[in-house]
Amino acid sequence: MLNIALTGGIGSGKSSATKYFRNLGITVLDADEFSHELTSKGTSTVQLLAKTFGDQVLALDGSLNRTVMRKLAFQNHSNRAKLESILHPKIRKKMKAAAKSVNSRYCVHAIPLLIETNQTKDFDRVLVIETPLSLRKERIAKRSNIQQSQIDQIIETQASDNERRSIADDLVVNDGTIEELYQKIDVLHHKYLMLANSGR
């Protein structure tokens, strides 16, 4: 099976892209979804996060207070490193396990921090979704209750557009309408089917 890693900066349109791949009948394994599953209420991961960062990261019902956790994570490098050391190995393990049962012609692995977690060589191809920074910031501000300073902090911790381009086998510039994004993915979909059929 052909394994495609899909990555891109926050606000670039990765979720729109993966949704469309799913509409095309392609299995998508999304690192963010596995992260939310791991940090849902009552999990051992949430208990470990509370032990590491204190009860301040818990909401009144015992679930993870994601707003507080995000602020702590981007407050300094040490906090972020601790969070990543807890989450990233668990996410990777779950994604690898899930990949074993995939039976579509190819599989898309959506990994926002593909470069940052040194996984670029684990896949047959890397697809990068790229969007101009100003448009990304605009999208994030509209969809999320995150302050501009936090948006800047998140962007600063992620790989740059140049770094992502350097490892891209396929690049989609998502600076137009959603229909234009879908058209670009349609082209890639046919390309990936051909590659899958050829055994590449």
Characterize the overall form. globular
Q: Spans with pLDDT under 50 lasting ≥5 residues?
A: none
Reported for the largest beta sheet, the result is: 5 strands, parallel
Distance between the termini: 9 Å
Question: How many individual β-strands?
Answer: 5
Kindly report the CATH topology of the largest domain. Answer: Rossmann fold
Strand order of the largest sheet: 2-3-1-4-5
Q: How many DSSP H or I helices?
A: 9
Q: Could you state the order of secondary-structure elements as H and E? A: EHEHHHHEEHHHEH
State the domain count: 2
Which superfamily, in CATH terms, is the homologous superfamily of the largest domain? P-loop containing nucleotide triphosphate hydrolases
Helix content: 40-55%
- How much is the radius of gyration in Å? 17 Å
Label the structural class. alpha/beta
For the record, the CATH class of the largest domain is Alpha Beta
Give the CATH architecture of the largest domain.
3-Layer(aba) Sandwich
How much strand content do the residues show? 5-15%
Q: Overall pLDDT, averaged?
A: 93
Structure summary:
With 200 residues, the chain is of the alpha/beta class.
Keyword list:
200 residues; alpha/beta; Rossmann fold; 5 strands; 53% helix; 12% strand; globular
3D structure, described in words:
The protein has 200 residues and is an alpha/beta fold. The chain folds into 2 domains: 1-26 and 104-200, Rossmann fold (3-Layer(aba) Sandwich); 33-97. The chain is 53% helix and 12% strand. It has a 5-stranded parallel sheet, sandwiched between helices. α2 (31-38) packs across α5 (77-99). The chain starts with a strand and ends with a helix.
